[in-house]
Fold each of these.
Amino acid sequence: MVKVAIFASGTGSNFEFIADNQALKDAGLEIEVLVCDRPKAAVIKKAQRRGIPTFIIQPKDFENRSHYEQVIVNELAKYQIDTILLAGYMRVITSTLLSEYPMEIINIHPALLPRFPGIHGIEDAYKAGVSVTGVTIHYIDEGVDTGPIIAQQSIPILPDETLEQLESKIHDVEHQLYPKVILNLLNNKKGD
Ligand code: GRF
């Protein structure tokens, strides 16, 4: 059994695809808690509907980021969390969380890192006029989208494609790739 916390700030489509993936459940993945920094985010209802506890916490209620993350660390300890999965969590992770979970925080990014890091990965690739972009799953380190890459999938940008069409294609790939990569990691852990 691997106990995970998912961190998300928005819609939560990746959250859903992970939570509803039967192969992940069969492999022993247990989503113990959703950590969300936006009280109105749609992902909260998605967790509640599935009976997954939610921990809603906003940085503005703390004097600094370290204190904010320390409260999250304390909460995760209650669930004995092994691994953190970021799924559209729109904040940089700092050393307070990283030192508790070294190489145990995983992120999905909607571009082929190291190209187009940051919060507008899809749009930045589109505007740059590149013919190929993609999706990256990587470990978190102290930088912004700089940690070691676990898996990538490329996606062509067609000449007459709109940004909305590209976004939808990228999300479709994300929804397949993230659960698949998590499953591989789980199976590798079992072999350890
Ligand atoms: C995804 O595109 C992910 O790559 C990025 O944020 C988006 C989250 O979407 N980090 P959702 O909330 O999972 O629908």
Amino acid sequence: MQAIGSAPGKIILLGEHFVVRGVPAISLSINLRAWAEVKLVDVNPNNGVSVVLSDLFGETYKCVNGGWGTPYCRVLDTLGVMRGVEAKIFSRIPPEAGLGSSTATSLALAGAACVLCKGSLDIELVMKASLEADRIFHGKPSGVDTMTSLLGGFILFRSIKNVEKIGEGAPDLRIIVVDTGIPKKTSKAVMKVLSLYERRKHIMDRVYEAAKALVEDAVNAIKHRDYVTLGELMLLNQGLLNTIGVSFPEAENIIATAMNTGALGAKITGAGLGGSVIVLAEGNKINNIVSSIKEKHRIRNYYVVSPDPQGLVVKTEKDSKRRLA
Ligand code: MEV
């Protein structure tokens, strides 16, 4: 018996970091996905201990001691299947780029293992397992990564219990993701911002207010497919991210190049201090923007992505047999 789970990567359009202290954020699942193939094994070479093979890091993880060493084993521990499972993880989402690769892989694994071992997709349990995995990366995940990858589409995230889908996707929307190659530093960035908040609460409250107002305006812009306004709001949001100290020089330079070549807006996405820049652009400007970024900056890679309306999907052998029949 086996099940395959797949989940999309994500970008945060507006509101990262501010969301950790309860400000809403807008995120979007993208058409780069991760997969987990999960099998039940009676006897395996590891004395029955569950194992997870990851093509992402070329590693094999053996699940012992509550799985605290690795997010994937935390997922299996939360599902209560630390024995008898063999899983393989594949991903097209670049790691360490702020595109939600670890959350998408954990979620794909949680979904497939849940269907296989519990007989159905228990969404609450899958969410819990993915959040447990995120906690290994930084102690205080807001849940925006998990909910975006789980549900797919445009997400207005207020809290784990208050998530609204504000659109399935937008076929006419393209976003350039520029992977700077500088690994993002989620835990360090989150702690840095929280500590700044504690030290400068009276100033930071005003910055958080501005972040909230940006998100409110962006909801309308997205609903009306007004990408000019959305671009302007993304750039304003970048200003706030710079203010709270999570932008980085390479990102600022790439953003300047993109804006000088006709982008509608650009900003870092996710935790920052490394990771990716996202650029919102009209279709006819994309080639120009990409060429000038490649010419002027040393980057690891770039992707032109569109929204993926589908969140977590799990298929079992039964499903494929049904399709063949
Ligand atoms: C990370 O993708 C987004 C942050 O806001 C952290 C979080 O919300 O958990 C930086």
Amino acid sequence: MDFKEEFEKKVMKETKKLIKKDKKLLVAVSGGKDSITILYLLHKWGYDVEALMIDLGFRFFKEHVDNAREFCRELGIKLHIASVKKELGRGMRELQLRAGKSNCFTCGVIKRWLINRKAKELGFEKVVTGHNLDDYAESILMNIFMNNRNASRNLRSPFRIKPLNYIPEKEIEKYAREMGFKINYEACPYSDNAFRRLVLNMMREYEISAMNVVKMFEKTSMKEEGKFRKCSICGGPSSGEICNACRLINLIKKK
Ligand code: AMP
Ligand code: ZN
């Protein structure tokens, strides 16, 4: 079996554990290697898929939107595009500057919130994302260092389906490159998540196994499941009375 076949077999095994074929799926696509790969494979395997992209409104993001458009057009997949600017009156860069928090925090919170809102409008209860094993392990370690239990619970959100959760990033990138997907592999120019980078470097330097981190987390955090509440403003999933996004949006409005 060559690399591509082996990779597909591995992802299919994970996918079958999570998704039944009769359900219509919404895949959140960023135009990056992970989400494009899972969208491609689900479609190839005959799942009934639609795609949702949040147009962040950054100038550099236009290429991602165009790539996703072309990809979905070629495969005949329906693509929904929700624009941050249309929904919130401002592009992501402006929201980041006004919020005065870390760029990645503001972008992540708003993105998750908009994905949930659009999915609900389109009649989907859950959304497929392209999160990979390395993302997962890094987030677990970051949350442990920061004692961030809410973020830890988000990692196991019942509203997300993550078929690539146990697949190393390197393998996904190799697959995407071998498949020749038209993708931008560059990191976001506004990314300021120095702490994530630190954790990533630490994992590399000490050869910490991402799979071991994930296994440890999953064995010990089962009891944290199912404790989501509804945000009293937007009705989306929240760990408290008001969700992070609504708090952030209120803060930006006041500025
Ligand atoms: P990230 O947090 O950027 O690593 O993205 C993790 C996953 O979230 C991706 O694999 C996508 O499934 C989803 N995602 C990220 N950015 C977007 C976006 N702009 N629009 C839709 N989905 C996204
Ligand atoms: Zn809310």
